Amino acid sequence: MYKSEQLANSLKRLIQNGTWKFHEKLPSLRQQANQSGFSLITVMNAYQSLEAQGLIYSKEKSGYFVAGPKASAADPLDLTINDHIEINSIVFKYLKSTQSDQIIPFGSAFPDSQLLYSPKLIQTMGQLARQKRSYDQTPSLPPGHFALRQWIAQRYCMQGIQTDPSDIVITSGGLDALNLSLQALTQPGDYILLQATIFYGAWQAAERLGLKVISIPEHPEDGIDLEAFEQAVQNYPIKVCLLMLNSQNPIGYTVSDENKYRLAKLLHDYQIQLIEDDVYEELYYGSKKPLPMKYFDQQNLVLHCSSFSKTLGAGFRIGWVHAGKFSESIQHLQLMSTLSVNSFIQNALTEYLSHRHYEKHLKTLRSALQRYKKQFYQYLKTQLPTSCKIHYYPSGYFLWIELPVQINSLSIYEGLIQQNIGIAPSILFNTLEDQQHHIRINCSFELNDQLREALNQLVVLIKQLE
Ligand SMILES: Cc1ncc(COP(=O)(O)O)c(C=O)c1O
Hints:
This protein has helices at residues 3-16, 29-36, 40-52, 88-97, 113-116, 119-130, 146-158, 173-185, 200-209, 226-235, 257-270, 327-335, 343-354, 357-383, 409-417, 449-465; strands at 56-59, 63-66, 80-82, 168-171, 191-195, 212-216, 218-219, 223-224, 238-243, 273-277, 302-307, 319-322, 389-391, 398-402, 424-425, 438-442. The protein is an alpha/beta fold and 466 residues long. The chain has three domains: 3-74, Winged helix-like DNA-binding domain superfamily/Winged helix DNA-binding domain (Arc Repressor Mutant, subunit A, Orthogonal Bundle); 88-115 and 360-465, Aspartate Aminotransferase, domain 1 (Alpha-Beta Complex); 136-356, 3-Layer(aba) Sandwich (Aspartate Aminotransferase, domain 2), CATH 3.40.640. The strands form four sheets. Strands 3-6-5-9-10-11-12-4 form an eight-stranded mixed beta sheet, sandwiched between helices. A four-stranded antiparallel beta sheet has the order 13-14-16-15, with helices on one face. Residues 109, 173-175, 199, 201, 244, 249, 277, 279, 307, 309, 314, 319 line the site of pyridoxal-5'-phosphate. Pyridoxal-5'-phosphate is lined by residues 109, 173-175, 199, 201, 244, 249, 277, 279, 307, 309, 314, 319. Pfam families: Aminotran_1_2 (PF00155), GntR (PF00392). GO terms for molecular function: DNA binding; DNA-binding transcription factor activity; pyridoxal phosphate binding. This is HTH gntR-type domain-containing protein.
């Protein structure tokens, strides 16, 4: 027997006895050669033989995958399986490197702090700080201050989502809300579903909890690919998904109500829980706030997470989850981790929100973001080579730029950071090797000469690498 046949047979057994699951990624040719001790050529021949038998399939630039019952070599599912996420160190390194005040913050995840600054909130905090009774150092236990939860519940009701303050749990920001929700609904080793390109916090949460991730590709028009979603939940034991559908970070799209309705139906049909990340919910430009998935949820399948980080400041660390029947289990987890959310800030926010200053602040913030994002878009449109595509959506403060496929966005990041210019490369949002040619630009700043010059440097670098 040829060595390649010998190897192919032993790999075949691993597939047939379920050691390797459907659509699981096989070790790369080089890894397999190292592991098995066979030469690269032998491994290549073995993989080709398995592919010819329809037992595995290849995806361009992504490698080989185990073929599933519905997926033949001719019709592979466009899903990616990640059973060992390792993104935290990359995110850590990146966040550290962009932290300095000297760096032009095109890579920042937060809007310009000048836009978030609310004199009324600071005034309220000052007044509260001077009251002796506000110096209460007893931690407020979960689920957080009643008056704040009541204000949040009223806001859901205004959107037609019947909500009681007891449905809400106050958390230390939106990320804490996402982490607690995911922890409440999963066990290590479970499969969850994510969008292929999504906020790194979702990947970090999956890494922290030891979850396996099935990711679905973006749909070019609709944002979310519901066909891929259905294929994924049909083929994998997925019980939980974590998605962002409004002003999606990093790409920026907002999924239509029609598709949200269709997604809600799929969640219902397959009994899948959704953790909805909606921290940009207030940053729409039109006259109507986009509906969250929670609106379409008839069965308490959606946990809706949001925060004040993108509207008042991430430093306050106040977020929440509309947890419904999971409120109690999330509170139990809080009791074992963060315990409570800063009581003074909860009080100050409640006081501030009760005077309707927030609506005025949001209006000013939205209109500035709309103006600045347009300025960035128009400038970059005239400067970037035509081989680049700018994804522009009317909400939030990010532009997602697709570079020519041969440019790895990490090279752009590394080239610019030496000049004290930050950008967010796609490696922070997407784990696929063939999707590393995108960058996210934060446009929440008035476009002055210094920023224009920094954008020019970006354009120069892209042209050099084109
Ligand atoms: C999409 C998304 N979700 C959640 C978060 C976390 O929000 P918070 O700062 O409230 O924890 C962020 C922060 O950048 C984000 O961009």
